[in-house]
Amino acid sequence: MRALFASLLFGLCTLAHAHKPSDSYLILQVADGRVAGQWDIALRDLDYAIGLDVNGDGEITWGELSARHGDLASFALARLQVSAGGRGCALQATDHLVDQHSDGAYAVLKFSAACSGIGDRLTIGYGLFFDLDPTHRGLARIESGGITQTAVFSPERREQSFDLAAPSLFTQILAYVREGVWHIWIGFDHVLFLLSLLLPAVWMRAAGRWQPAPRFAPAFWEVFRVVTAFTVAHSITLTLAALEVVSLPSRLVESVIAASVLLAALNNLFPVVSGRRWLMAFSFGLIHGFGFASVLTDLGLPHGALLSSLFGFNLGVELGQLTIVAVFLPIAYVLRATWFYARVVFAGGSMLVVLLAAAWLAERALNIKLIS
Questions:
Q1: What is the Cα–Cα distance from 32 to 21, expressed in whole angstroms?
Q2: Is the pLDDT of residue 97 over 50?
Q3: Section 197-202 average pLDDT
């Protein structure tokens, strides 16, 4: 039991240092037989890979970055291959900028790809940071002839080809479904909020104490209400934010999301809301939807298939969420009456989430670094 508890602690500590996984954002624009590219790469990742913070003060200045522009371009472009018609395109850096994303500063590498002939098919090979961080993902957007396609590059999917003529609607939706699944699985704050609400689902409150649920049906319907409320809420705000109907400052959104995780876990230890927890799921789910929307903002939604891509992403989020629930609920129900579930999973897990969420809240609200 102690070993298992130590593993749980280690896992949560890992999440603490990786609550925003390593992503880069690659945009390729194909027009008039030419390919122009922009690649946004997190400064923290580049610093780890090639060393940008020369004086070690924890801050990367423009002077430190500009001094390594050549090394940065060589490092990145050596890990990107673009080919058309079976022939490789020569990549050349054209400009260096800096941009701010929701999770920090990014180096912006602009480049051109000289191809002998574009044709109707473009193939991209991506290998940035995979040797250093297998959880890294490359979020790509390919624009050609008014059509936008997206892709996620991973160690398992290093090379992908794109039909520049007319990709099917199904292909575009499927790409965003994959995006949604991936981003709920790596959205650790979203997952911990949901799990914090699900932990008491296999129990019931009686005589001022948590008691194991006598049957599976009440636990199932409690989970159903919580998940449905969370789904409906974040679907509403995800849609409104993605369509640019409503916009909130990212720092406010991320801070409230951290606060929601904190309050949900505290409620397990000191129950204030023991019934109708679906209301808590719905209320905070509204703000979580803005968090999901930030992913789409970085990735971009194709104007020609706006609603279908939004539908695909939202569907992917729900599929990823239901996968987590499908794994969690049967195990929690089997263990619900054990000392291990009561002390380690419920009490210990909730306390660890409280500590983690409190640190996240301090980081995001006060713009300081504690664990990341």
A1: 36
A2: yes
A3: 92
Q: What mean pLDDT value characterizes the chain?
A: 85
As given in the structure block, the two tokens for residue 152 are 């996620």
Q: In this structure, are residues 50 and 75 in contact, taking their beta carbons and an 8 Å threshold?
A: yes
13: buried, middle or exposed (CB in 10 Å: 19+, 13-18, 0-12)?
A: middle
Pairing of strands 23-31, 137-144: parallel
The two three-digit tokens of residue 315, written as one number = 């569907």
Strands (E), 127-237: 137-144, 147-153, 159-163, 203-206, 209-212
* Gap between the Cα atoms of 283 and 144, Å rounded: 40
**Model confidence over 327-371: pLDDT tens digits?**
999 999 999 999 999 999 999 999 999 999 999 899 888 877 665
Paired with 26 in beta bridges are 39, 140
Indicate the helix (H) or strand (E) that contains 354: helix 349-366
CB 283 within 8 A of CB 368: no
Residues in the chain: 372
For residue 301, pLDDT over 90 is answered with no
Is the CB of residue 282 less than 8 Å from the CB of residue 230? yes
CB 199 within 8 A of CB 350: yes
The span from the CA of 352 to the CA of 356, in Å, is 6
What is the DSSP annotation of 306-340?
HHHHHHHHHHHHHHHHHHHHHHHHHHHHHHTTSHI
Angle at 47 between CA 43 and CA 50, to 5 degrees: 125
Helical pair 169-185 and 277-299, crossing angle rounded to 10 deg: 120
Cβ proximity of 150 and 141 under 8 Å: yes
Q: Which tokens belong to 76? A: 């990145």
- 108 bridge partner residues: 40, 97
